[in-house]
Design goal:
The chain is of the alpha+beta class. It is 43% helix and 17% strand. InterPro entries: DUF5819.
Length: 196
């Protein structure tokens, strides 16, 4: 019994030290043992300081999706744009205890896609391919719920608008029509039944 308690305490202490070294400012110890620290921390225990010093978005993004399918007569049927961001906003606004997923799943998927792809939609790495599939699968799940069934092709559109400035009294300046509007149209992605 003492051995089990000792092993549990040693594991907890090791975990705490490695996570601390991961999130602490760079120092000689964390630099020297970075490979071992990262092997322990990633992917399950990743930490950052966003809880204490969040980095809020400086832009608002509206992510929409549309689907396409070939009809029996050979014509291509393209759906209307469906606002995926509005679904997230509605889930948060109408729930006294909104889930973290409802608040962040789509936004974090797009942010990660953008970090890995930049201005191009060509996936430069296996991680970029994985993030593209993740973003596509979120969109497919939500459009399937909305339209009633999955379509063989899906396309995303992201409209980015800078957050309006705050006035000294704490209110935001109104922009009509919005300035600095940026629209990014992603290519059509094939939807597979297995999500890959």
């Amino acid at each position: 019994m003492r051995t089990v308690v000792f092993l549990c305490l040693a594991t907890v202490l090791t975990h705490a030290v490695l996570v601390f070294l991961h999130i602490a400012p760079s120092n000689a110890v964390s630099q020297r043992y970075s490979r071992q620290i990262n092997a322990w921390v990633y992917p399950l225990f990743e930490q950052n300081w966003r809880l204490f010093a969040p980095d809020p978005d400086s832009v608002n993004r509206q992510i929409s999706a549309r689907t396409a399918r070939t009809a029996a007569d050979g014509t291509v049927q393209v759906s209307e744009w469906f606002d995926l961001t509005a679904v997230d906003k509605a889930a948060v606004e109408h729930s006294p205890f909104p889930s973290h997923t409802a608040q962040n799943e789509l936004r974090r998927a797009w942010t990660s896609y953008l970090e890995l792809h930049g201005g191009s939609d060509e996936s430069p790495s296996a991680r970029a391919v994985m993030m593209q599939k993740y973003l596509r699968n979120i969109a497919v799940a939500r459009t399937s719920d909305h339209f009633g069934k999955a379509a063989p092709f899906i396309q995303l559109r992201v409209v980015t608008v800078p957050v309006t400035a705050l006035r000294p009294d704490g209110t935001r300046t109104a922009q009509s029509p919005p300035k600095n509007l940026e629209t990014r149209l992603l290519p059509w992605w094939k939807v597979t039944s297995d999500g890959n």
